[in-house]
Amino acid sequence: MAIKAAIVARKPAGLSHIDAAAMALTGLTALVSVEDTLKLRRGKTILVQGGAGGVAGFAIQLARHIGARLPSAANADDLDYVRAPGADEAIDYAAQDFTRVVSNVDAVFETVGGDVAERSFAVVRPGGRIAFIASGARAPASPRPDVTALRPAVGRDRQHLERIVALVEAGAVRRPEVTMFPLAAAAEAHRIS
Asked: In the chain, where are the structural domains located?
């Protein structure tokens, strides 16, 4: 297969090709969303919705590396998984209404969609931003004039891939958990996903 040189980067020596592919997939979306779209900075607070997902898990590690404060919402079985990479607070979204637990955040990284996406507007401070990746090709319209709703434009380029490599090599992000399935078990892989 021929690939344009502008969209490839050197694979970190410590990652298998499978892990590197998984890291690129999740990392590009998280990196563009958190750094480029939300412009997260040290000392700011970001709520990461769906923290146990691959993209959100990378985002949690990235936000921790940046020096942000971060609560994250996930299901009860995944709370320790969300805390492990750096969430300051893990919210069980089935048992707690995140809008009653979290408020006045600078940013939300929304990876769930539906009702969670709509309710995320309630927890953002005036002037804050929300990046949506699970709500279709466009961000939902903001019901608040003081909150900006954004849909990250995630592409492939060497600059972002090299940023992921640098984060991996610095130990700022760890490889995602990858489970291999034979093609005959594709239905089971989709069920788990």
From this structure: 15-192
Decide if 75 contacts 94 (C-beta within 8 A): yes
CB atoms within 10 A of CB 72: 32
pLDDT per position as a tens digit, 15-37: 899 888 888 889 999 999 999 99
Q: Which of 131, 129, 133 is nearest to 147 (CA)?
A: 129
The CATH code for residues 15-192 is 3.90.180.10
Please report, for the chain, how many H helices and E strands are present, in that order: 7, 6
Q: pTM for the whole thing?
A: 0.91
Closest to 59 in 3D by CA, of 123, 132, 114, 141? 132
Tell me 39's DSSP state.
Answer: -
Distance CA 158, CA 117 (A): 31
